[in-house]
Amino acid sequence: MIVESYCLNPQTGDILWKSPDFNTYTGIFNTNVYSPEQKMFYTKVNSTIVAWDFSNPTKPPSVAWTTYIRGGGITGIGITYGDGKIFTGSFQNMQYALDAKTGNIIWSTPTKGPMIFTGAYSNGLYFKGGSDDNTMYAFNATNGNIVWRYRPDTDGYFTTGCAVAYGLVYEMNKDGYLYAFDMYTGEVVWKYKGPNDTLMWPGMPSVADGKLYMTTGQTAQYNAESGISEFSCINAYTGKKIWSLNIEVLPPRESVAIAYGTLYLIPGDVTTAVDTISGNEYTTVNQIWAMQNTGEQNNIPPTVSDWPQWRADATHSSTAEIGPKNLTVEWRFSTKGAVSSSPSIADGVLYVGSQDKNIYALNAYTGDLLWKFATNSPVESSPAVANGKVYTGGDDGYVYCLNAKTGKLLWKTFVNGDLPFTFGNLVLKSSPAVVDEVVYVGSLDNYLYALNGNTGDIKWQTKAKGPIESSPAVADGAVYFTAEEPNAGALYKLDAATGEIMWKYEIPYRISFGGGTQMLGSPSVAEGLVFASSNWGDYYCIETSSGNMLWHFSNPTATEFIVSSPIYVKDGTVLLIDKFDLACVDVSNGWTKWTTYTGDELYVSPSYADGKVYMATSQRHILIFDAANAGAKIANVTLPSSTWSSPTIANGKLYIGCNDWNIYCFKEDTPEPLTTQTPPPNRPAIISSETIFGVIITAIIILATIAIIFKIYSHNKK
Fold first, then answer.
1. Are 562 and 591 in contact (CB under 8 A)?
2. In b/e form, how buried is each residue of 539-556, taking b as 16+ CB within 10 angstroms?
3. List of residues 6+ apart from 569 with CB closer than 8 A
4. Quick check: helix, strand or coil at residue 547?
5. For the whole model, what pTM was predicted?
6. Please, what sign has the CA dihedral across residues 497, 500, 506, 509?
7. What is the pLDDT of residues 233-247, one digit of tens each?
8. CB 24 within 8 A of CB 715
9. β pairing state of 607-609 and 319-320
């Protein structure tokens, strides 16, 4: 833990070292930043940016490089890190980008006002509010070109910093408005008006779980009567206020932290209301507040999370934090072919393939088309989104890499995925998994491919003894997949770096109805175990280290293809499809804990969120089961056709493709938010638990580390 010039052991509070040269605090409004990727701490010292080598954090850092920034000034000029670059402004009406390793200036772009404060980086774009010209900028982070700019017709200006989430950029303006911009176009999606017409120093937003937290109203005003203090929780999608308190949280520094389902803040008092711009009008009340949602109100938006790859991530966890309890269609988007590809969600954008030969990017909140890319054949593979790129395979045999923002083709690599093949009940293709800029995908030519995510070059290819329809899972430096081999199925473990076969486990076929032998189920990995299915009714739990079977689950009466991936649940159970049933088994021995009869044919992989299981059936149903209540059915909706697309859960919603040519977004039908409650102006030291957010716990913290935090805030005010 770094506090100014000190390095402390975060477990004990012991001082590991003190540096006479390095200091995280270098002046008011200077926002210095540490990059774990570069293992460097970047600070602004007068007119220079200094990179400190933190490769050995147990010792005081040394200077790696220093770069002079023309017009740097003593105060202001925040630092932002993103994708190997350092972004810093200037009082000279200029935005700069530096190479994070060398300090060399990569580009400098003239602006119409000084770029004093800090910004935010996301997906190849750098966002920053210009102060004197009252303009919000989006820069191409690679070359510095201005992608868009927005200037409100108000007497304000953008200060402090912004936040990026869910495809939106959030920043407060001195005109009293909190703006939400589309990160790619600059369009104002919504704006929230605080209680005052002006702000002295707008706060910096903090974003979590679909909500924004920040100071939106201040007592101190410029040469005006006192205003109204307001700290707000705002719906990040709509801009609607969820709750507010009549406090301020030390803007422009905004002392907010969010972790472990808890909002932490240091409330502030305003001691001088007018004619001051120093920041000294804010003082703390010597308390830290910890606030949690009690779950008693229905007006708190659900936790938001991406689902950027097939089955959520490279391990195929198939799990989200929050999912809807019931299903109401929020929007649908029509393609010109069946959609068996499972949607992937990243940064507020839905990516999916269609049998009309296109890959689509849609606004995940509205269903609006952002772009589409045409391939030469139907697309059944599900996309993977990573590092600003979309990877997916078409039936034309290629793996495609597209720019996630524009849909522009970056590269395509032929992997023989268009070979003639006799499918069983379902036509499924391997979906790519992406880890550390490497794309792993199986092919009908019997090879598992590893491709360079930036160039498409084949890093290695490993041959199995049969076609690979399953999607590889990647975990802890290893790749797992199943193949349809001549005499039996096979589960492979490969070294992710070299493609070397580390072990192979044979999974016997059970030839039954139709005589098919397709190995369609994809493995999933968790807790040192890999879970895989046979072609017909059998599941295996294998130790990842040894390749030895821990247990085998079998239903001798099963007559249906097994297509789905098992789901490991952190309570020590595994969810799997057992003929027409959803079964829950003990992860330690494979013994059944409960089963629930669905009455439908089950092929598609289920998904899981906060105790609920989501399943799509061949009888056109989407079902939700309560895993905590022995699989009791809690919701059922009917689609116009069947679906081979697996449910995707993100943003508290469910997304799925359908054979009726549509992509659907289902939301939970919930009551309108409750009326905002705020405490009276002369608030007590402890706010009642009747406030909208839930329980507010206050205490005076005596720990040494907390005392140091107060020291920082006290120091910052001087």
1. no
2. bbbbebeeeeebbebebe
3. 319, 575, 608, 627
4. coil
5. 0.59
6. positive
7. 999 988 999 888 888
8. no
9. parallel
